[in-house]
Design brief:
This protein is mainly α. It is built from nine helices and two strands; from the N terminus they run ααββααααααα. The longest helix has 38 residues.
């Protein structure tokens, strides 16, 4: 792989963008734009600029979309945009009411934000895999550029770590600092001092498991979907539309489903943290 022209320092811009071999093509499409340039992708202090840029753009788009709907809202006959946003808000609000039984003044907007952002993250997987990376490369901005944030492990884990922080905050809010600390040491085995350490270990493992499972479920599904699109794109152009179209149709179901699962699990985890056991 070290002789691959995509990864060779002396490669020309044309050879980098054209990706003459299949392995170069796959590596190019699953490599993030990293800062510092050429750094180890496993380095925790490396910035994935493409994930950050796409996430910011999609987040601002979602915010602008909701602001535009709010400004166009009328008390009379609603327009199509208002109808769509009201349906989305009602759907999220009903999901929160069914799963979370504490104060919903923050959880409702949080759930709507998570659903919208994760949905837009996943939706980027339906953009043809060559368009954005090839355009960015040809314009000379970067050799690599991935546009599916949820297929980059950092984005789902960043979101799930945020949810972990909220789980702890809502646990303290619902039970009090003393009550939350007591539950960590006495649940589920009992209040016997000999069981305090096993209880604490089990509860910490449970918190970590929630965070990891929340992130890995989203990442695993979208990374696999992205990789399949890349492999389909290696086929001759006159045949790739058949499997590519079929996979895209199936993936249309995956895009909202993964966003819904991430949102619902977040609500459930916050509800479990808030309620007393």
């Amino acid at each position: 792989m070290e002789s691959n022209p995509v990864l060779t320092e002396g490669a020309t811009q044309a050879s980098v963008c054209e990706m003459p071999t299949a392995d170069a093509y796959v590596v190019h499409h699953i490599t993030n734009l990293r800062l510092p340039k050429g750094s180890d992708p496993m380095d925790p202090f490396v910035l994935h600029l493409d994930t950050m840029i796409v996430s910011w753009v999609l987040g601002l788009f979602f915010l602008f979309f909701l602001m535009m709907a709010a400004r166009r809202a009328t008390a009379g006959e609603p327009g199509k945009l208002q109808n769509f946003v009201e349906m989305l808000v009602d759907f999220v609000d009903n999901t929160v009411k069914e799963s979370f039984h504490g104060p919903r003044n923050f959880v409702g907007p949080l759930a709507l934000t998570i659903f919208g952002v994760v949905f837009l993250w996943n939706l980027m997987d339906l953009v043809p895999v060559d368009y954005v990376p090839y355009a960015v490369c040809k314009l000379g901005f970067a050799n690599y550029f991935r546009i599916v944030p949820s297929a980059d492990i950092n984005a789902p884990f960043g979101l799930s770590v945020t949810v972990l922080g909220l789980i702890i905050i809502y646990g303290i809010k619902g039970k009090g600092l003393g009550g939350y600390g007591k539950e960590l040491f006495t649940h589920p085995f009992g209040a016997n001092p000999l069981l305090w350490i096993p209880n604490l270990i089990l509860n910490v493992v449970e918190l970590i498991a929630k965070t990891v499972s929340l992130a890995m479920r989203l990442f695993g599904n979208l990374y696999a979907a992205e990789l399949i699109f890349v492999l389909i794109a290696l086929l001759p152009w006159w045949i790739q539309f058949v499997p590519g179209g079929a996979w895209a149709i199936f993936h249309i179901l995956v895009v909202p489903l993964q966003a819904f699962l991430f949102m619902t699990l977040t609500i459930v985890y916050l509800s479990l943290a808030y309620e007393k056991h």
